[in-house]
């Protein structure tokens, strides 16, 4: 981890402005094409959720702005961010996970399996690891959606990206999935969101 030199940052004024707002977050929902990743997950008998989650983390880690976190009056730059995803239990409750990111899908999948096992064998809501070098996300496979609002804690300078993945649907012979992302505008602009979704789609379409 290192720190950004805000004084030389070309977004200094943007950062200062949005950081001063009561709620500097903004959110968008985009439908992504998951046809290829779904078929691959079925063929290789992997979890569809883990497959697209790994692609999502790869995309987020590609762009530095999604690895920025506000620490008091400084901006930390993490080398890598991980996933804190909700994992469902049979009684319809869930636990928060902390899944360490790995470039290699199979290693990442093993990390997920360990966290899932921990959650299924406990009643804990929170994971043992609690740090902000992650993104928060939830799968909502019961319905599709066109917009989404995240619950907020009211913590000043909350800067962890939050994502939600909805129920898939067919559109023009493609399997689509709504993906909502909420970010802190002091750190991330619409331009960066566009880069993320472009890279996310690229990762979803890969064969490996």
- Computed Rg: 17 Å
SS elements, strand count: 10
Q: What's the total helix number?
A: 5
Residues in helices, as a percent range: 25-40%
- Largest sheet features: 7 strands, mixed
Structural class: alpha+beta
Query: How large a portion of the residues is in β-strands, by DSSP E?
Result: 25-35%
- Uncertain residue ranges: none
Oligomeric state of this protein: single chain
Shape: globular
Mean pLDDT across residues: 96
Distance between the termini: 29 Å
Order of helices and strands: EHEHHEEEEHEEEEH
Describe the structure.
The chain is α+β, with helices and mostly antiparallel strands and 208 residues long. The protein is 31% helix and 26% strand. It has helices spanning 12-19, 35-44, 48-62, 105-120, 190-204, and strands spanning 2-3, 25-33, 68-71, 74-77, 82-88, 94-96, 134-140, 162-166, 169-171, 174-184. Strands 2, 5, 6, 7, 8, 9 and 10 form a 7-stranded mixed β-sheet that branches. It has a 3-stranded antiparallel β-sheet with strand order 1-4-3, with no helix packed on it. It starts with a strand and ends with a helix.
Task: Describe how the helices and strands are arranged.
Layout: E1 2-3, H1 12-19, E2 25-33, H2 35-44, H3 48-62, E3 68-71, E4 74-77, E5 82-88, E6 94-96, H4 105-120, E7 134-140, E8 162-166, E9 169-171, E10 174-184, H5 190-204
Parallel strand pairs: 5-7, 7-8
Antiparallel strand pairs: 1-4, 2-10, 3-4, 5-6, 8-10, 9-10
């Amino acid at each position: 981890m290192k720190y950004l030199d805000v004084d030389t940052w070309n977004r200094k004024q943007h950062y200062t402005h949005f950081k001063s707002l009561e709620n500097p977050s903004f959110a968008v929902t985009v439908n992504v094409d998951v046809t290829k990743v779904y078929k691959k997950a079925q063929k290789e008998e992997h979890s569809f959720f883990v497959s697209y989650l790994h692609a999502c983390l790869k995309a987020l880690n590609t762009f530095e702005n999604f690895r920025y976190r506000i620490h008091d009056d400084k901006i930390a730059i993490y080398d890598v961010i991980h996933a804190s995803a909700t994992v469902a239990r049979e009684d319809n409750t869930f636990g928060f996970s902390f899944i360490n990111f790995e470039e290699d899908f199979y290693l990442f999948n093993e990390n997920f399996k360990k966290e899932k096992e921990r959650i299924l064998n406990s009643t804990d809501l929170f994971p043992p690891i609690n740090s902000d070098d992650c993104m928060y996300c939830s799968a909502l496979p019961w319905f599709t959606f066109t917009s989404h609002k995240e619950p907020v804690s009211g913590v000043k300078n909350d800067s962890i990206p939050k994502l939600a993945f909805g129920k898939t649907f067919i559109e023009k012979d493609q399997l689509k999935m709504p993906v909502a992302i909420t970010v802190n505008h002091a750190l991330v602009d619409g331009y960066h969101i566009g880069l993320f979704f472009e890279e996310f789609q690229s990762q979803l379409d890969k064969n490996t």
